[in-house]
Amino acid sequence: MSDISVHSNAAEYAELPVRHNEDQLNADLASQVPLEVSQSSLDSAHTKTHLLLQCYMSQLTLPSSDYLTDTKSVLDQALRILQVRMDVSADQGWLVTSLNVIQLLQMVVQGHWWNQSSLLTLPHVQSYHLACFRRPGKSSSLPRGAPDSRAVVDNLPELIALCDGQMKTLNNMLASDMTPQQVDQVYQVLTKMPQIEVDVELRGWLEGEPESSSRQFNIGHRGGLRPESHWLQAHADQEYVLHVNLRRINKSRPKDSKVHSLRFSKPKDEGWVLVVGNVDSQEVVALKRVGYVRGQMRVQLSLYTPENTGRVVYTLYLMSDAYLGLDQQFDLCLDIIPPSVEAQVNSEVQDDGRFR
After folding, report:
1. pLDDT-derived band of residue 343, with 50, 70 and 90 as boundaries?
2. Residue 45 backbone class (left: φ over 0; alpha: ψ -120 to 50; beta: rest)
3. CA–CA separation, 306 and 235 (whole Å)
4. Which pick of 191, 220, 223, 245 has the fewest CB atoms within 10 Å?
């Protein structure tokens, strides 16, 4: 069962109207959407909800104004339902489900599928524009649209980095296919999209240290074996606190906290979800929702280390609750050493969040 199907079965959608002969209209929509629905329940409010969500994210034309009204009703309730589902899945420790729910939240806000190019969430950008997004100076001798993996810019973070403070770069890509006003609108949205820099510290008691230690993770590693210095020691079965520092590094700061969305039915504030997970066991270790990052924000997440000694890699996910393609993830490498009675006695959290 897909995550959209699970969402559509929420009790809040049981009262969505299915009018006379709409089962036939639903059957026609079912033949157009990418995910299969049960042909035996086309008169069900939950099946109609499922179809409306798929039509919304596929940008399909709806058969009547009633369906537009019903779609707005479905979307109006979607965020609240997904927030509850996120909390429940995290409480149960379901890592894959939690990440899927957050991804569905992004799809609902942007009105696009996760496997579509995130560039399509920009104003005026259609599928035929994607070939225009190329790195400067790459493959200039190739015919337009010819495949070249070195030249293509296929995601928002890369385009943001190329065009940050460089309107000319974007104009060179799009000037032949868009008006100057349209290119400017794309640029304004790009410059406001959040660019978040992340630093992570582990704080807590370590035997042999004079006081509660604070050690910074190396989260910039990309591939290959990690040096010994990247592994931070921590006692088994011990509470520690991750201090995650989030810093907005945009050259221009937006005037408000509203998310850019071309399709969602009402304004939404930008927010983030921090998830710490164990990929091997597919368990959520910690999850915390945070709001708009205007300048700098420090977030604390408490976690307990495993009971067994040995090395473990946790993954920190920084996930947008509104934008597709802007998520980040980092490995947190822990060397779990035997538990310490001294550590357990001395690890008391003070009101200011520090250990003593």
Report:
1. low
2. alpha
3. 9
4. 223
Helix (H, G, I), strand (E, B) or coil at 270: coil
Placement of tokens 């990418």 in the chain = 34
- Asked if residue 63 lies in contact with residue 28, where contact means CB atoms within 8 angstroms, the answer is yes
**Predicted pLDDT of residue 356:** 41
For residues 42 and 49, the answer to whether their CB atoms sit within 8 Å is no
The residues near 99 (Cβ < 8 Å, ≥ 6 apart) are 275, 277, 317, 319
How many Å apart are CA 283 and CA 221, to the nearest integer? 23
Q: What average pLDDT score do residues 96-124 get?
A: 96
> Which pair of tokens denotes residue 88?
């429940």
**Residue 324, helix vs strand vs coil:** coil
CA distance 238 to 185: 51
Domains of the chain, residue spans: 3-92, 118-192, 196-346
Question: pLDDT-derived band of residue 145, with 50, 70 and 90 as boundaries?
Answer: low
pLDDT at 293: 95
Q: Give 3-92's CATH code, choosing from 1.10.10.10, 3.10.450.50, 1.10.3380.10, 1.20.5.170.
A: 1.10.3380.10
User: What's residue 348's pLDDT?
Assistant: 54
The CA-atom distances, in angstroms, between 178 and each of 182, 221, 257 are 6, 39, 28
Answer for the pair 183, 171: CB distance below 8 angstroms, yes or no.
Answer: yes
Backbone phi and psi for residue 199, each to the nearest 5 degrees, phi listed first? -130, 145
The average confidence (pLDDT) of the chain is: 90
| Beta strands, E only, 308-352 | 310-320, 328-337
In angstroms, rounded to a whole number, what is the distance separating the alpha carbons of residues 49 and 70? 8
Place of tokens 């400017």: 184
CATH superfamily of 196-346: C2 domain (2.60.40.150)
Average pLDDT over residues 328-347: 83
